[in-house]
């Protein structure tokens, strides 16, 4: 499994998940930059994502929905704050209605993605979510955030392996 660390820090209102991949940082960045790749891993395997809008520039918007096993759809949005490819991405992350409009009574988080080179030439990706309140953090953790993010990131190895052609190395 690619996930190497999951950390809940209620004192600082942070939740972070770290995974390592046997690919260079620019390849790990494409997992975010290419919406077709992003939808192959964002969300648990039973809730695949479809990205509708994907403007990964500062000030840009990303909208998506995840489709559950019963055909139910759950919408989300990102407001992109900082993009420093291939190492850093920051965005506001929230729930949306089926028209893609933010739902104001659901928590939003500030997400920071860092991708750094490992000593072996691979990439270490950490996603840190910062919550506005402890109640918001507890609500999203109770909704399955930890399990969902772990399952989502667990799909990345297969995605990266599918890219390899005979004779390629990771």
Average residue-wise pLDDT: 92
Instruction: Report the total helices.
Output: 5
Q: For the terminal residues, how far apart are their CA atoms?
A: 16 Å
* Beta-strand content: 35-45%
What's the total count of β strands? 8
Overall 3D geometry? globular
- Protein structure class: alpha+beta
Radius of gyration: 16 Å
Question: What sequence of helices (H) and strands (E) makes up the elements?
Answer: EEHHEEEEEEHHH
Characterize the largest beta sheet: strand count, sense, and whether it forms a barrel. 8 strands, antiparallel
What attributes does this structure have?
8-stranded antiparallel β-sheet, 170 residues, alpha+beta, 8 strands, globular, 39% strand
Can you walk through the features of this model?
The chain is α+β, with helices and mostly antiparallel strands and 170 residues long. 23% of the residues lie in helices and 39% in strands. It is built from 5 helices and 8 strands; from the N terminus they run ββααββββββααα. The chain has helices at residues 25-33, 35-38, 134-142, 145-153, 156-163; strands spanning 3-9, 14-21, 49-54, 61-67, 73-84, 88-96, 109-117, 123-131. The protein has an 8-stranded antiparallel β-sheet. A hairpin with a 3-residue loop joins β5 (73-84) and β6. The chain starts with a strand and ends in a 7-residue tail after the last helix. The model has no long low-confidence stretch (mean pLDDT 92).
Summarize the structure.
This protein is an alpha+beta fold and 170 residues long. It contains five helices and eight strands, in the order E-E-H-H-E-E-E-E-E-E-H-H-H.
């Amino acid at each position: 499994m690619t996930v190497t660390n999951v950390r809940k820090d209620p004192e600082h209102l942070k939740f972070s998940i770290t995974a390592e991949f046997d690919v260079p940082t620019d390849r790990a960045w494409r997992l975010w930059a290419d919406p077709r790749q992003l939808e192959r891993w964002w969300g648990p395997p039973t809730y695949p994502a479809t990205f509708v809008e994907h403007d990964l520039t500062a000030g840009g918007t990303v909208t998506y929905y995840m489709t559950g096993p019963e055909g139910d759809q759950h919408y989300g949005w990102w407001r992109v704050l900082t993009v420093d490819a291939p190492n850093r991405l920051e965005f506001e992350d929230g729930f949306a209605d089926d028209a893609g409009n933010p739902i104001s009574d659901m928590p939003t988080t500030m997400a920071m993605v860092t991708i750094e080179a490992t000593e072996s030439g691979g990439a270490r990706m950490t996603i840190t979510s910062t919550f506005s309140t402890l109640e918001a953090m507890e609500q999203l953790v109770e909704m399955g955030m930890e399990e969902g993010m772990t399952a989502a990131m667990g799909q990345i190895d297969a995605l990266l392996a599918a890219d390899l052609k005979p004779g390629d190395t990771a």
